[in-house]
TrEMBL record:
It comes from Paeniglutamicibacter kerguelensis. Residues 129-284 form the GFO/IDH/MocA-like oxidoreductase domain. Residues 3-121 form the Gfo/Idh/MocA-like oxidoreductase N-terminal domain. This is Dehydrogenase. PANTHER family: CONSERVED EXPRESSED OXIDOREDUCTASE (EUROFUNG), OXIDOREDUCTASE. It holds the Pfam family GFO_IDH_MocA. The keyword NAD applies. Transmembrane segments: none annotated. Keywords: NAD. The keyword NAD applies.
Amino acid sequence: MDLKVGVVGFGLRSGLYEHAHRPGAGSVVTMVCDTSERGRADAAKKLPEARITADLGELLDAGLDAVLVLTPDNQHAVVAKRTLEAGIPTFCEKPLDVTLDAVDEVLETAFRTGTKLYVGHNMRHMPVVRQMREIIESGAIGAVKAVWCRHFVGNGGDYYFKDWHAERKNTTSLLLQKGAHDIDVIHWLAGGYTQRVSAVGDLAVYGDVESRRDNTDRRMGDWFSLENWPPAEQTDLNPVIDVEDISMMQMTLDNGVLASYQQCHFTPDYWRNYTVIGTAGRLENFGDDAGNLIKVWNTRSQDGYVEADLEVEIEAAGGGHGGADPRLIAEFLRFAAEGGPTETSPVAARAAVAAGVLATESLRTDGSAKVVPALGGELLAYFAANQERINA
């Protein structure tokens, strides 16, 4: 019998419903909750047989087998705590929330209720990330000692500065909202979590753009264009912009690995570049799409840039985010129905938020290092056991 799946929030990430709506093949979206009239109208058009509501309580009482929480970031914990309390296995989009206190409340609710929690860090399913991790685990570069990530957010003006993303009250910062993906990947590749972090950043370009508009009546598809260039000539930016458009953070991980992350929202190109350096070599991706390359150097040279010792082509996979989205939802639905290990982790999701939140605090003060508060041992043990009671 198909799992009955609900969706809360039918906005920017609503496309994930397609991977959960497979009538007769394992799962079907039977209900959508959205507080906006447009969200409900969009849901009714795409899911004509589903129940559509603005009342979360109605969804909680609908006898669902799983739920996708796809609201704006600052509503993740508010909704997820209620779905967990209702006993519904819960997928929560990343970041888990925009404050560390809210994130810890979600984890504590999942622990107390025993309801399954899954966080949507889809990059753990992206071919480029998985292949880099496989190379590292093969021992090809030795023990990891450093990870660098440069994120060129070429569509930053269109994606993040024309709607709710541009405001701290909704996101804390784009270093958290956008960077949570990369921080999690850095942790995954390095095999540790950030223990201490510092950062610098600035609103260097978009704060000076005078063209502003309330875009709550529109969606990104209504304004996005590659012709919106150069960045200083963007139009119709959000009335309030108080997040940085360029940020740089440095991390010391709990296993001694050093890491850095740089994010810029006014570059012309859009991709991520990771460099991982180990005791026997280094790897670096040149592009992050199918057909691009991951290169590995192991041979010492004094001739400047030399060709890599190994080149690995990034695999093709169907679906959004390089094939990650369908794998992500498939894993969640399997976890909701059967339990067991998953590639994503609520503890890892908490670690990414903690690093992003404290880095933001650092860059908005004096740039000094901030220490990440530890998660309780009982919670660590519970999530390490795939959310099964140790003494069950």
